[in-house]
């Protein structure tokens, strides 16, 4: 007998849903997103009613809750998007930094010399030459040089380097230095 009473109550609740769908804002054929929302509302009304989670006769409060939640989600997404926008940093200097002086010399033997000075004080000096490998079958480029500039914090940076068969070896006051290894006594 309990099952028959449950079936009777379930049929009565659907009448309210049918009336809402015939007379309410969803009475005409909807397409796209509105149709998708309508389908979700219908499904939720049926699940709520037949699942005995809540007795709904017209689904109007459920529809209002769904649209209120959708609005809350949109507002939350907008707040997250606004919070994710990076704050403006110091304004960048407009314009191109001019090259005040540039010298480049190359020869057929593979030797070169390059230097320049830019308008912001950046300098570069580099020399290079081809050097035969140990077995004499090929050549490698050996370079040495230096460059200097001013960091964004206003600190002058200067670096000199050698790049040869032993690798790239930079030197500069701003580079970290490993502590000296103490001698091992046997």
UniProtKB/TrEMBL annotation:
Molecular function GO terms recorded: structural constituent of chitin-based larval cuticle
Domain of life: Eukaryota
Pfam families: Chitin_bind_4 (PF00379)
Transmembrane segments: 36-56, 62-85
Keywords: Cuticle, Membrane, Transmembrane, Transmembrane helix
InterPro entries: CHIT_BIND_RR_consensus, Cuticle_Struct_Prot, Insect_cuticle
One GO CC term, this protein: chitin-based extracellular matrix
Entry protein name: Uncharacterized protein
Taxonomic lineage: Eukaryota, Metazoa, Ecdysozoa, Arthropoda, Hexapoda
């Amino acid at each position: 007998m309990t099952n028959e009473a449950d079936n009777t109550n379930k049929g009565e609740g659907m009448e309210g849903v049918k009336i809402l769908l015939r007379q309410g804002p969803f009475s005409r054929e909807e397409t796209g997103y509105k149709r998708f929302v309508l389908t979700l509302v219908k499904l939720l009304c049926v699940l709520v009613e037949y699942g005995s989670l809540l007795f709904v006769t017209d689904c109007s409060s459920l529809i209002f809750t769904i649209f209120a939640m959708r609005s809350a989600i949109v507002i939350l997404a907008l707040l997250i998007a606004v919070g994710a926008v990076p704050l403006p940093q110091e304004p960048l200097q407009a314009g191109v930094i001019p090259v005040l002086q540039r010298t480049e010399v190359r020869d057929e033997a593979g030797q070169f010399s390059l230097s320049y000075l830019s308008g912001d004080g950046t300098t570069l000096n580099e020399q290079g030459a081809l050097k035969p490998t140990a077995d004499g079958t090929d050549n490698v480029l050996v370079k040495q040089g230096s460059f200097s500039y001013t960091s964004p914090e206003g600190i002058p940076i200067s670096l000199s380097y050698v790049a040869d068969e032993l690798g790239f070896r930079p030197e500069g006051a701003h580079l970290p230095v490993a502590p000296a290894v103490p001698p091992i006594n046997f």
